[in-house]
Amino acid sequence: MLASLVAALVAALCYGTASVMQAVAVRAASRRTADGSGPAGVDPGLLPRLLGQWRFTLSVLIDLAGFAAQLVALRRLPLFAVQAMVAANLAVIAVLATFVIGVRLSKRELLAVAGVVAGVGLLGSSAGAEGATHPGTGFKIALIVATAVIGGGGLLAGRLRDPARTLLLGTVAGLGYGLLGIAARVLTGFAPGVLVRDPAAYAVLAAGVVSFVFYTAALEGGSVTVATAAVILAETLPPALIGVLFLGDTTRPGLTPVAVVGFVLAVASAVLLAQFGEPEHPPEHRLQTAQAAESAEAGAGDKRPVPSTDLGGGRQVLSWWPVDLRL
Fold this sequence. Notes:
About 70% of the residues lie in helices and about 0% in strands. The protein has 13 helices and no strands. It has helices at about 1-30, 45-50, 55-75, 80-85, 90-100, 105-125, 135-155, 165-185, 190-195, 200-220, 225-245, 255-270, 285-300. The protein is globular, with a radius of gyration of 20 Å.
């Protein structure tokens, strides 16, 4: 049980680090303007542009490491515990920021971190073993169908204007991450021959692609805080219910109220920390970009959209992220 708890925390650390790096990379590669205009729908050229950035490639590798740790956690812990712990990834980043580079957290942020720690502690102490229910092929195929449905919803959401676009794309991505966790939980085994014959393996692959594509789309031009909060809620609540209703997830005898309180506290506190994924350009880069925008407006023949520089106010985590944000 202890190894699974540690694995869940490692997954949270990996996912949090990767999401921050991806937020920076997406903003640098985005062709959407500050008013939300730009390529209609989900920009098909965004991913190829991102693949040319070292920080994005590294973030993908970190994500894969996080998924491996999540798999370890799912072998012994119920879905509601693992998903809530993974959703708390930005709390891990906030704590690391205070120790590594001396970021000072506000009282609200300190309370949110304390809430995450308390919630995860309650979940860890109350969670029973993973459910003994083994769903059949029909359940696994339903996961593939559900992934296709939310993927279609994501394509429709991508054609909207902000703030609805960012909120709905974040929700779609969160549902994809939730389906990814469910599918990973019901995998029959990890041997290549077993995976090829297991529909859950294809659900893992499909959900991973859908969540990844629409999360990067949600980060493009919109508020990362809104997108992250939507992801947190959508990736925790549905899987928790499915785990309890269909997979036999339970708490330790008599500790169900403790688990409920821990789950709500961890998720709510994680939502309060969603702004820790919001990128912020350094002042000199904002000035250079603003001057470039003025020059573009002055040019009569140049009608290309200027990349958005409205990246949120206040002291955010990426004001200290040591990367060059220029294209």
